[in-house]
Amino acid sequence: MTGPHAEPYPRFSDAEMARRRAALEAVMAAHEVEHLLVYGANRSGSAVGWLTRWPVTREALVVVTPGEGDVLLVDFYNHVPNAARIATEADVRPAAPSGIATAVEELRARGAAGRRVGLIGPLGHTAHARLAAAVGEVVPLDAAYTRLRLVKSAEEIAWLRVGCELTDAAVVALRDGARPGVDERELGALVEGAYAARGGTTHIHYFAATSMAAPAMAVPAQWPSARRLEAGDALTCEISAAWWDHPGQLLRTFAVAAEPSPLYRELHAAADAAFDAILGVLRPGVSAADVVAAAGVIEDAGFTTRDDLLHGFVGGYLPPVVGSPSRQIAPIPDLTFAAGMTVVVQPNVVTPDERAGVQTGELVLIGEDGPERLHHVERGLLSAGA
Known about the structure:
Layout: H1 14-30, E1 35-41, H2 46-52, E2 59-64, E3 71-75, H3 80-86, E4 91-94, H4 99-109, E5 116-120, H5 125-134, E6 137-140, H6 142-150, H7 154-177, H8 184-193, E7 201-211, E8 233-242, E9 250-256, H9 262-281, H10 288-294, H11 297-300, E10 304-305, E11 310-313, E12 317-322, E13 342-345, E14 349-350, E15 361-367, E16 370-373, E17 381-384
Parallel strand pairs: 1-5, 3-4, 5-6, 9-17
Antiparallel strand pairs: 1-2, 2-3, 7-8, 8-9, 9-15, 10-14, 11-12, 11-13, 13-15, 15-16
Helix pairs in contact: 4-5, 7-8, 9-10
C-alpha cells in the first residue's frame, strides 16, 4: 500500500520516487557531474527525505550515482534500523564514526576521485574541505534542487492536504483553549495536542500576545514566554503542523475575551484586503512584481508589514520571497508563478511604529485557473476566550 495513510509508515509510490530520481539525474547531467552527495543534519536538509523517504534526524548523507543504488549513511547508530525500514530502496549504513569520511570512501569506490561531484545540503566547512580534497571539483546544486521543489506532484499535494488538515485542527484547538490565565507555553501544548496523536509533527508554532489598549508586540515570537493571556489581548499565531515533511501553514489573529479595538479592526481590514487582492491576481504566468503591486492596499491604509508578504513553501522556504511595497529587503525576483506551486500568502500588517500588528494568511495551491485555499479555518479577526 502507498499513500499518506499507508502502514506502518506513509509511503510515496514507486512511480513518484522514480520521477524524483529521474529529475535529479537530469540535473546532474546538465551540470556534468557523475556523482552526488546529499546532506542533512539536525532535522534539516529536505533533499534526503525527498530522495530516500528518510526524514533527517541527527545526520544523514546520501551517495548518488546514476545506474547504481543509493547509499544512505545515518547517524546516530541507533537510528539506522528505523531508517532501513523506511528508506527501503537505499543501502542503509551507519554514518559513525564519521559520516563524511564514510561518504568519501564510498565516492572513491565509485570512481569519483578527480571527478566533478555535486553537493546538495548544508555541509559544514570541515566536511566540505574533506570532500573537496577527495574529488576533482565540488559543484553546488542547491539552487537546482530548489527549482525541482517549486512545482508539486499530485502525490505531494495529497500529502500536503493532510498537513493542512492537521494545522487547521491545531488552530481550532488554540481558538477553543486560549483564555485569560493561559500562558504561551500552554498554548503550544494545546496546538500540539491536536495533531500529535494523529501522526503530525511540529514544524513551527509561534505566538504573540499583547494588550489591544496598549500594544507593544507586532509579530509572533519564535520562543514562547511565560506571559499569561489577559482579557483585552490580541493573540496572533503562525502555526505549521507537518505530515512527514509536508506542513501546512496558517496565520490568524484572536481578540481574547473582548471585542477587537478600533485599531485592530483597522489593521485586520487592511490585511484582509491585501489577502483578497493577492489571491485575485495569483495564477500561472503572473509575476512576483504583480503580487507586490496588489499588496499596495496596505500602504494605502497607512500601514506596513514586518514579515514576508508571500513565499514559496514545502520542500524549503522557496522562491519567490517578497515583501509589501514599503518593505523590500531584496530586489523583487524575476519569477512567474506556475500551476502546482504552493505559496504562503501572509499580509501581516503592522503599524509604522511596529507596536501593533495582526497575522492573517495561509498556504495556497496555484491551479490552472487560480489559487486554491488548502485550509478551512474561517478567516477574519476571530474571538477566543469568550
